[in-house]
Amino acid sequence: MADPIRLPRKLREQGWKVKIYDNERLEPPHITLICRERVWRVGLRERDFLVPPGGPLARS
Amino acid sequence: MTNRSATRARAGGSERKSASVLLVGKVTKVPPGVVAYRRFADVPTVLPGKPQQHWVMIISRRTSTDDLIRDSLLARRVAPVGSLLTLDPPRPESVPALAGFFRRVLGASAAHQWLPLEELISVLGLADAADRFIGGTADARSETLALVRGNLETLVVPFEFLEPSGDKTRPDFSRLAFEDHGQTIVLGDYEASADGILYEFDEGYRRRLRKERQRTERTFGASLRRLRLQRGLNQRDFAPLAAKTIARIERGDVDRPHGKTLDVIATRLGVNAKQIESY
After folding, report:
1. Could you report how far apart the first and last alpha carbons of chain A are, in Å?
2. What distance in Å separates residue A39's CA from the closest CA in chain B?
3. Which of A24-38, B137-151, B220-234 has the highest mean pLDDT?
4. Is B94 helix (H, G, I), strand (E, B) or coil?
5. Which residues on chain A are in Cβ contact (under 8 Å) with B163?
6. Taking 50 as the threshold, does the pLDDT of residue B271 lie above it?
7. What is the rounded radius of gyration, in angstroms, for the C-alpha atoms of chain B?
8. What is the pLDDT of residues A22-49, one digit of tens each?
């Protein structure tokens, strides 16, 4: 279940969203940054991307 | 986060491929890259660009599907596209006929939910569309979600997979919605990420993700594996260390070897022990 962080209006209007997933069953705690169709998922323990930006298909 | 990761973040996000989307219906604003016609009768027999089976037709009004069937029969032609997405469910009696004209008909159920139209069209043009969900249905009787991916394939997920989250929020399957350009499945106050679902149900996705993580991971084990592969070595080439030991280190079961183990590894790789993690 995501815990959304309320961003300043200007960022929201640009399409930014930030969600913290810290209580998931299968995934480690992570933060998801979304800007329209782009997404970055960063592990809070790993301090690195859980999924490469652009997804696993980005380089296929 | 390393600078390299930050660089990937700037260069990352989703690449675009050329979308082949045909929109039929009254549309006030035509998104870029989309071909739009008010009526199916206006759609030409041959569409420009990609082969016709790669085109996706999106119909926004229920009556348009009746026009489609009638016009296709009058013209005695097969519909010029591969897949049909109906934003407004067609009459159930017309679905078999639609299935006769298209390879795939999606959105036929009254319970079907879609991304907002602009996001849906955007996702269809993304290189990683297959890793996003553009729509789907929740069936309380079979207790399953049928989720449509951006490549128009359907993934079936049982309700029981979506357990209450740590703060006890339960999914409400009667309030299904899709957000964030297909990255998020919303079930009332509950949200699930597309990546989390795909990781569990799509072996191909897991393999691709693991391959990409191995390529970019920064742990000692990941560096050892990269360097070992670069040198053309097998895990059993580190005698007197067992292949099992090397495998455990590469998997991350052992944080970082030291002492004699580290010396053996470094000697075999032909590098200074401190340099291994730089690879």
Report:
1. 30
2. 6
3. B137-151
4. helix
5. 25
6. yes
7. 25
8. 766 666 788 889 998 888 888 887 777 8
Q: Alpha-carbon distance B39 to B41, whole Å?
A: 5
Answer whether B3 touches A (CB < 8 Å). Answer: no
pLDDT of B42 > 60? The answer is yes
Rounded to the nearest 10°, the torsion over CA B109, B110, B116, B122 is 20
Tokens of residue B44, six digits? 């030409």
What percent of chain B clears pLDDT 70, i.e. is strictly above it?
A: 84
Q: How far is A9 from chain B (nearest CA, A)?
A: 17
Q: How far is CA A13 from CA A3, A10, B45, in A?
A: 19, 5, 41
CB atoms within 10 A of CB A33: 16
Task: Quote the minimal CA–CA distance from A40 to chain B in Å.
Answer: 7
For residues B90-122, b (16+ Cβ closer than 10 Å) or e, as one string? beeebbebbeebbebbbbbeeebbbbebebbbb
In A, which residues are within 8 Å of B9 by CB distance?
A: 40, 49, 53
Q: Check the CA dihedral B70-B71-B73-B74 and report its sign.
A: positive
Q: Where residue B13 falls among pLDDT bands split at 50, 70, 90?
A: very low
pLDDT digit string, tens, across residues B164-209: 876 788 999 999 999 999 999 999 999 898 988 998 899 888 888 7
Any A CB within 8 A of B191 CB? yes
Contact B42, B23 (CB under 8 A): no
CB A32 within 8 A of CB A41: yes
